[in-house]
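Section 5.1 Outputs to date
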Amino acid sequence: MKIFISGVAGFLGSHIADAMIAEGHQVIGCDSMIGGLLDNVPSTVEFHQVDCNQFDTMLRLTKGCDVVYHCAATAYEGLSVFSPHLVTQNIFSASVSLFAAAIQNRVRRIVFCSSMARYGTNAVPFREDYPTRPQDPYGIAKVAAEDVLRNLCQVHGVEFTIAVPHNIIGPRQKYDDPYRNVAAIMMNLMLQNRQPIIYGDGQQKRCFSFVDDCVFCLKEMAFSNKVLGEVINIGPDEEFVSVLQLAETIANQLRFNLDPIFMPDRPQEVKLATCSADKARQLLGYRTSISLRDGLQQMIDYIKTRGTLPFKYHLDLEIINDITPKTWSERLF
């Protein structure tokens, strides 16, 4: 088949591309390069450096494609409270542009990567039938994109499915981005012999999903008829750890003397967030094959191989006031 992947130079998109190429499929992809790296893109991918908001280009690139994976996203949940225009333009508007182009070209199926931010504050673990209660512009935009996808595909007769990956980790994740990827940020700091910064008391709890386990499910979501029209959480519901415990685990692996710097809570951050994997187990045969510790070690090895990097404040803050995290407004990383 011919597979289109948005965000193909990014962390998740490039891993999906690898999996599709290994299965013998032809892959075409795009990336705006806000968060991507050219050396992530497999050599056999037909790559285009363009933004999904460019509808005419999306219409041209998705012509003749069988499956569209929409992975591209400015996945900045915390930052979206302070840069809402940037984030929503690249979540909602970009998604609708790609969906419309794909539907016009009669692709067989669209696989949309949403976010656990859709759940907001709910009882944990989050289940797919929970009401959506997003707490920030990023989550609101993801839910709105889901709604438009569902509406358009039902009206125009195109297959779709919605994946909800959560807290993916692994090699190729950006570690010089001060706005996201908590494990990668901590590693980059500790490997520079710098203390990690933790927001609040560090008792925010998450589960972390190794990228290969997510790709296993996402690959199936392009072809299985069991998932049509479904929302499916992708990621583990084991090893529910606090941010402070995450820092301690990384420090132990690096033999680093941990003494974290604590900063005020980030506004609208959900305290407890993890998803049930029961539906993915039932429909996709999902299982956790890589433990948190082993996944973190693979990330450490990746960063050591590439070398530590200074943090790049590559996105502008649109709202700066007394509650803007000083890590961003004063560039403390």
